[in-house]
């Protein structure tokens, strides 16, 4: 290549390239004639000294003469020379002193300490980060996008990967893995012989709290991402790119799609992209908003239409990725900077930041700062300079700073003492026992409640856990519960160490990194803010007493004061020797709720059986037994552990929601009514549990009072259901006017024209329920027996009430028949059993009997297709079975409730002769079954409200 003389940034720069030397030697002569910057080996400099002097004589007259070559003892080390690149502003270039150039006896070290930060505008990759220009193709080209992209593509994948490796680019999604090395995994041996497609998957599912850098790229610089997909795809020889964008990013997806459409229209992507002969397509896929889909294998699962749960590795995505084909998942920022690196050179990008932390980076600063923003800065910039320069400083000044989360919510928190001299790069934050993550800096001043903030993050990670790994599924729930107590100060100091040990047990024992994500913030809190936790606990103990400050609630402290009950033992709250008990920190409260409550009942049974207990202790013991019995009943009825039922606050919160719900209130009154009916039917229960006395006896007034309470509860329930008949009529009319649809089996109708049998039964049931409610509402005033107030008269009201019982019986009977028909149809059409390879007889591969090679190949291909079909059908069958089991459980519970309720109107009409206590038991059980749905609905509403 011929010699070149170039003028750049006000200084003369000569570059000589010779054979066998790819980099050449560069001499930079600044405005000061005594300043020389030399780079290359000594042998090459000596070999070209004569030619170089001749070239300098031919330079313009304004060029000062070159000084002699520096002696070895004054020459800089190679790493220093790399830092002295003239690619930045002149002030950044560090020169040798004149003393060193002249070779005096006294050699002075003129190299100052390297500082980072202060990125110049001409070195910023994302020029439109603040939306100064439109996000269209014309504006993108003015800012340098799509410049010489064809030349980059034609240079080949090896050249692109080598440039990315030379740049030192590490993944910007949080892990920090070297990007050039990761992209090279796709080009394995004999990759060109593989006929399967190859994919680049761009992770735009930016769900990390505090992170917004990728969103800004897609909103303001979408063409950088589209061009980056093309360059990165060429590096790994991909056939297409899928950009998986978060579902909430509606506007960003629209802007990005417009950019893709513009690129297709201009021929920049698609068939013969940029005229290079390389075919490459770009697609957008909208996600559902799950945080766990930010993990690469979860993202691939979601992209394939499956639940977003991580895969086990190996195989890695580079071998078996999207749709079973080689794939690479990369972050938006990582992909977007690739074209600029290829245009300006990997050495230019590597000139920023420290070693192993090169390049520029987008930082998202939020929280208690004067000007929250997203800014591009040099890697290794000091944290304080980043906040003071670009965000106007911390609110109230730097001394008002309390803590900073440096890299998104999943990185450990850092106190102010660490933040004073903290550099923002991967290695520096790792040395501070934190991480750069996504570079989402969350600033908290001294007005912030650090413990509450970390507790809120624990709730977030518990909510976003996919539940696949047991340590993450159970550990996230336990940490959320413990942090919610620590936030209030409820706990003992020893529990802090137990929480630390719990996070250590979760860390590294999950498929994806979400286990570390919820463990690390808690570890950082304990590491730096343990005195704050201890002070909270001490203050709470002073205000509320030691009994309420521990890890056990008030029930344990009350029991511990009873005579004969010792203090806490090994794992048992009641001090029983040899009992393993229920430790809420070592066993999940949801998973072992029934076992734990049964454990409490077992110990209290011993309290009740002992004749030496005092009257007051027995009374509280019986109430406590009833409390735990109700927990077990609700757990069995709901099919899962109730919402936060293992804590007293959770019980009160969900019970309040259940009681304030109009349907839940009616079910609650019906439950109490059934209990009173059972007690009046069996007086011995009153003497034993409700009103303990010695000897056991029941006064007549007690039973009379309970009967009166039962009657008033019945009237109260009728008042609540005053206008429910309107809803029943509306439901029946909706079913009647609805378009006729085939039954669940897919067959035709069997009970009427255009509608299946179960639909007509539901219409009859809804209509009868409506008429039953209408008659109940009409007789409410007369049955209340208010003196001087009558509507129909007591006799007529009693007769109509009997007719209402008949309507209720018919409605229940029709509802039970409908549930039974639906259940039979559901069970009669199970998924087809699969044997052998997984396909049925009709789908079995049929050979043609030919013995030639083509026939064998065709037969093997057919077998492979059938196996793939069988695998697909097995997965569909699993999903179908889950849906069938859920529907079956709901229908069985509804059928049982209707059959139990049939006893009540049948006995009232005299059709069935049963004991009144049996009616009370049937009412009790049906109330539990029907109230379970309301209970679960209230739990879901509470969880949504908490979120």
Molecular structure report:
It is built from 37 helices and 18 strands. With 947 residues, the chain is an alpha+beta fold. Among the domains are: 4-102, no CATH class; 125-351, NADH-ubiquinone oxidoreductase 51kDa subunit (Rossmann fold, 3-Layer(aba) Sandwich), CATH 3.40.50; 353-448, Ubiquitin-like (UB roll), CATH 3.10.20; 642-712 and 914-947, no CATH class; 724-827 and 893-912, no CATH class. It has a five-stranded mixed sheet. The protein has a five-stranded mixed sheet with strand order 13-12-18-15-16, sandwiched between helices. The chain has a four-stranded antiparallel sheet with strand order 1-2-3-4. α34 packs antiparallel against α35. The radius of gyration is 38 Å and the shape is elongated.
The coarse silhouette is elongated
| CATH homologous superfamily (4th level) name of the domain at 125-351 | NADH-ubiquinone oxidoreductase 51kDa subunit
What is the structural class? alpha+beta
- Give the overall average pLDDT: 74
What can be said about the biggest beta sheet?
A: 5 strands, mixed
- The percent range for helix content is 40-55%
**Strand order within the widest beta sheet:** 7-8-6-5-9
Looking at the structure, the CATH topology of the domain at 125-351 is Rossmann fold
Provide the CATH architecture of the domain at 125-351. 3-Layer(aba) Sandwich
Detail the poorly predicted runs: 1-108, 551-597, 604-621, 635-646, 691-698, 741-752, 833-851
Number of helices: 37
CATH class of the domain at 125-351: Alpha Beta
């Amino acid at each position: 290549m011929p010699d070149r003389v170039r003028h750049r940034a006000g200084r003369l720069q000569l570059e000589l390239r010779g054979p066998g030397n790819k980099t050449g030697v560069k001499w930079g002569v600044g405005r000061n004639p005594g300043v020389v910057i030399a780079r290359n080996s000594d042998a090459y400099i000596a070999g070209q000294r004569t030619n170089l002097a001749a070239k300098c004589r031919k330079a313009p007259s304004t060029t000062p003469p070159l000084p002699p070559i520096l002696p070895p003892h004054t020459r800089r080390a190679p790493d220093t020379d790399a830092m002295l690149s003239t690619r930045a502003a002149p002030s950044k270039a560090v020169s040798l002193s004149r003393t060193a150039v002249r070779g005096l006896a006294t050699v002075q070290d003129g190299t100052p300490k390297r500082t980072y930060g202060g990125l110049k505008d001409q070195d910023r990759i994302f020029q439109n980060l603040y939306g100064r220009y439109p996000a269209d193709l014309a504006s993108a080209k003015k800012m340098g996008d799509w410049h010489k992209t064809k030349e980059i593509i034609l240079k080949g994948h090896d050249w692109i990967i080598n440039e990315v490796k030379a740049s030192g680019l590490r993944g910007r999604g949080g892990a920090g893995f070297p990007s050039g090395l990761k992209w090279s995994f796709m080009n394995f041996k004999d990759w060109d012989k593989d006929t399967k497609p190859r994919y680049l998957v761009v992770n735009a599912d930016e769900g990390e709290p505090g992170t917004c850098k990728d969103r800004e790229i897609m909103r303001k610089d979408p063409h950088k991402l589209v061009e980056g997909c093309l360059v990165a795809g060429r590096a790994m020889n991909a056939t297409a790119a899928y950009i998986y964008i978060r579902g909430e990013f509606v506007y960003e997806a629209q802007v990005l799609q417009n950019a893709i459409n513009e690129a297709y229209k201009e021929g920049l992507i698609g068939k013969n992209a940029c005229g290079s002969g390389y075919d490459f397509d770009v697609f957008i896929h909208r996600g559902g908003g799950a945080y766990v889909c930010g993990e690469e294998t979860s993202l691939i699962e979601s992209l394939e239409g499956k639940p977003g749960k991580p895969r086990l590795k190996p195989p890695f995505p580079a071998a078996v990725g999207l749709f079973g084909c080689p794939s690479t998942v990369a972050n938006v920022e990582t992909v977007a900077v690739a074209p600029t690196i290829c245009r300006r050179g990997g050495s230019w990008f590597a000139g920023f930041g420290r070693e192993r932390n090169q390049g520029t980076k987008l930082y998202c600063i939020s929280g208690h700062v004067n000007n929250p923003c997203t800014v591009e800065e040099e890697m290794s910039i000091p944290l304080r300079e980043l906040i003071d320069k670009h965000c106007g400083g911390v609110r109230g000044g730097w001394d008002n700073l309390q803590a900073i989360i440096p890299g998104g919510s999943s990185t450990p928190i850092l106190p102010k003492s660490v933040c004073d001299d903290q550099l923002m790069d991967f290695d520096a934050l790792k040395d501070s026992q934190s991480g750069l993550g996504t570079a989402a800096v969350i600033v908290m001043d001294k007005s912030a409640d650090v413990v509450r903030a970390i507790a809120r993050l624990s709730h977030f990670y518990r909510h976003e856990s996919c539940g696949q790994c047991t340590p993450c599924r159970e550990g996230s729930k336990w940490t959320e519960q413990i942090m919610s107590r620590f936030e209030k100060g409820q706990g003992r100091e020893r529990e802090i160490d137990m929480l630390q040990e719990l996070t250590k047990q979760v860390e590294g024992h999950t498929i994806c990194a979400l286990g570390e994500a919820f463990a690390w913030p808690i570890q950082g809190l304990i590491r730096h803010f343990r005195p704050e936790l201890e002070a909270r606990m001490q203050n709470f103990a002073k205000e509320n007493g030691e009994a309420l400050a521990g890890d056990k609630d008030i029930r344990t402290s009350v029991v511990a004061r009873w005579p004969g009950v010792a203090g806490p033992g090994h794992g048992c709250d009641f001090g029983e020797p040899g009992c393993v008990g229920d430790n809420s920190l070592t066993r999940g409260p949801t998973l072992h709720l029934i076992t734990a409550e049964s454990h409490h009942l077992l110990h209290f049974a011993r309290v009740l059986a002992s004749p030496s207990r005092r009257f007051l202790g027995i009374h509280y013991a019986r109430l406590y037994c009833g409390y735990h019995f109700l927990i077990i009943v609700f757990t069995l009825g709901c099919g899962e552990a109730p919402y936060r039922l293992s804590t007293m606050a959770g019980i009160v919160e969900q019970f309040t929601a259940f009681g304030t719900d109009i349907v839940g209130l009616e079910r609650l009154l019906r439950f109490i009514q059934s209990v009173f009916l059972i007690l009046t039917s069996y007086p011995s229960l009153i003497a034993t549990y409700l009103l303990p006395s010695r000897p056991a006896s029941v006064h007549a007034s007690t039973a009379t009072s309970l009967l009166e309470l039962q009657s008033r509860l019945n009237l109260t329930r009728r008042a609540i259901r005053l206008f429910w008949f309107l809803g029943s009529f509306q439901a029946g009319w909706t079913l009647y006017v609805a378009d006729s649809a085939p039954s669940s089996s897919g067959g035709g109708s069997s009970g009427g024209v255009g509608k299946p049998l179960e639909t007509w039964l539901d219409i009859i049931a809804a209509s009868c329920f409506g008429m039953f409610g209408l008659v109940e509402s009409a007789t409410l005033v007369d049955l209340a027996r208010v003196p001087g107030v009558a509507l129909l008269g007591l006799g007529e009201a009693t007769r109509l009430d009997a007719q209402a019982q008949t309507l209720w019986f018919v409605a229940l009977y029709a509802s039970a028949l409908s549930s039974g028909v639906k259940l039979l149809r559901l069970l009669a059409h199970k998924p087809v059993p699969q044997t052998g390879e997984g396909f049925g007889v009709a789908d079995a591969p049929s050979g043609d009997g030919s013995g030639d090679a083509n026939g064998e190949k065709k037969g093997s291909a057919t077998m492979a297709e059938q196996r793939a079909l069988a695998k697909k059908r097995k997965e569909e069958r699993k999903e179908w079975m889950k849906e069938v089991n859920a529907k079956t459980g709901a229908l069985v519970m509804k059928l049982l409730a209707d059959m139990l309720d049939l006893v009540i109107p049948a006995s009232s009409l005299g059709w069935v002769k049963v004991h009144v206590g049996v009616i009370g038991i049937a009412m009790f059980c049906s109330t539990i079954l029907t109230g379970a749905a309301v209970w679960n609905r209230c739990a879901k509403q509470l969880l949504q409200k908490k979120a």
